[in-house]
């Protein structure tokens, strides 16, 4: 049980988030469980959305939850590469990364990692930076020859993550890893989040992006789906394009020891808190 007193909890919770009455019911649900949160899209670019995201993570930390953040950075990488007149090619949604590009990608992601950590510290939330240069926890092998320095995780130092969480710090993980020669590789952030969630047997994997969740044929949000329903929606082309690999990744995670994967819209106010700490939730919950 969270040891916070009622007035302390009311102080921590944002006024425009879930109410104290609701939150109270959920405090024990995720006690001592890992919540892996992958954040991408405009949430990482829009200052207002970024601020709310940071506030929500700090709230989870202060009420005794164990959030673990994996951040993307695709839009920032695109901006930096176009500044330098370097054209990106993509194969199946993954950026072809040569020797020159990987150094730029690494610099952009490490700078961004520092920003997220600094923003959390401003909210009195202790963190630990995890990048290819500091506390690297991800060992990789190349995804394929044609993609260059794009990696697939082969090993995660789970014990390092558990130690960080044990002292009430929030790990902030850049989607970078090293191979056995200490060469840096870029990794798809969804893949990193999924791999870490499976290794930790996390209670939740939250994928935060610019989409409402999974929508039906009339563009209405589907609150919950399982693998049978997902396959049916893919066959009927209700789920299509870039959403298919996202859903397949979520289903893989949900069938490998993670109790639920949620796709939520980070553009909605305090969507993380409403998903974890309210009756109505937000987004689409994906179970096995």
Features:
288 residues, alpha/beta, Carbamate kinase, 10 helices, 14 strands, 20% strand
Describe this structure as you would to a colleague.
The protein is α/β, with parallel strands linked by helices and 288 residues long. It has one domain: Acetylglutamate kinase-like (Carbamate kinase, 3-Layer(aba) Sandwich), CATH 3.40.1160. The chain is built from 10 helices and 14 strands. The chain is globular and about 55 Å long.
Secondary-structure blueprint:
Blueprint: H1 6-12, H2 20-26, E1 34-39, H3 47-62, E2 66-71, H4 74-83, E3 90-91, E4 94-95, H5 99-122, E5 127-130, E6 138-142, E7 151-156, H6 158-166, E8 170-173, E9 176-178, E10 184-186, H7 189-200, E11 204-209, E12 224-225, H8 227-235, H9 243-254, E13 260-265, H10 271-277, E14 284-286
Parallel strand pairs: 1-2, 1-11, 2-8, 5-8, 11-13, 12-14
Antiparallel strand pairs: 3-4, 6-7, 9-10, 13-14
Task: Write a brief caption for the model.
The protein is α/β, with parallel strands linked by helices and 288 residues long. It is globular, with a radius of gyration of 18 Å.
Order of helices and strands: HHEHEHEEHEEEHEEEHEEHHEHE
Strand order of the largest sheet: 5-8-2-1-11-13-14-12
Q: Helical amount among residues, as a percent range?
A: 25-40%
Category by helix and strand content: alpha/beta
Query: Biggest β-sheet, characterized?
Result: 8 strands, mixed
Extended strand count: 14
Indicate how many domains the architecture comprises: 1
The dominant shape is globular
Percentage of β-strand residues: 15-25%
CATH architecture: 3-Layer(aba) Sandwich
CATH H-level superfamily title: Acetylglutamate kinase-like
> In the CATH hierarchy, what is the class?
Alpha Beta
Alpha-carbon Rg, integer:
18 Å
User: DSSP helix count?
Assistant: 10
Distance between the termini: 28 Å
Average pLDDT score: 93
